[in-house]
Amino acid sequence: MNTDLSIIHLIASASIVVQFVMLLLLLASVASWTFIFGKAKQLKRATYITDQFETEFWSGVDLSELYRNMMVKNFEPEGIEKIFVAGYKEFSRMHKAGTIDPSVQVENAHRAMRIEQQRELESLDESLPFLATVGSTSPYVGLFGTVWGIMNSFRSLGNVQQATLAQVAPGIAEALIATAIGLFAAIPAVVAYNRFSTRLDRLSARYELFIDEFVVLLQRQAHSR
């Protein structure tokens, strides 16, 4: 009896169902790693943009000048910059009318910033549900493959009068690989999801704080003219 217990041989000799489970988990792992690298880059960029913009915003620069700088050709606002542009654009448009109550001007600007904030957070949250799904379901999918493989292993021994460890070990080993691959797919996804969720919450809090502080400035500007 062939007792080759190398991983490649065990995978190759596994049943079709177990091989399908392994392939599914490997594809999920590749997809989750792709999302992990992409999301890490996106969140790093969003944090950098926020740091740079807040530094410039609180440097004492005139708001209208800052807005004009955002509107120059070939400049594409990102993250918190979009929130600022949405708010100031709405405020400036209504303020120029001259007949609209200042509180309404600020309220509409506040609403515009909230809408843009929600869009930005939805963009940053994209793919996180997939990581959560991979992290929560992969171990169970791998366990299914293991149970199926072990079941087939014992069924094949049904007609054997005396089973030995050498006969049972390969079947059990190939089945357990499915659980190992499930954990391999799940663990990075769970770690990444928790880390990204924390960073996203921090960014969301910074957006919230900026909007509140910007609204105070707009209120002063609205009542000073």
Protein model, in words:
It contains seven helices and no strands. It has 225 residues and is mainly alpha-helical. It is 83% helix and 0% strand. The protein has one domain (7-223). The mean pLDDT is 86.
Strand content: under 5%
pLDDT averaged residue by residue? 86
| Measured distance between first and last alpha carbons | 92 Å
| Low-pLDDT windows of residues | none
* Rg from Cα: 28 Å
The SS-based structural class is mainly alpha
Shape, per Cα inertia axes? rod-shaped
SSE order: HHHHHHH
Helix fraction bin: over 70%
> How many strands in all?
0
Number of helices: 7
Main sheet: strands, sense, barrel = none
Number of individual domains: 1
Question: What's the SSE blueprint?
Answer:
Elements: H1 7-13, H2 16-57, H3 63-70, H4 80-97, H5 102-125, H6 128-156, H7 165-223
Helix pairs in contact: 1-7, 2-6, 2-7, 3-4, 4-5, 4-7, 5-7, 6-7
Give a quick set of tags describing it.
single chain, 83% helix
Describe what is shown at a glance.
Helices cover 83% and strands 0% of the residues. With 225 residues, it is mainly α.
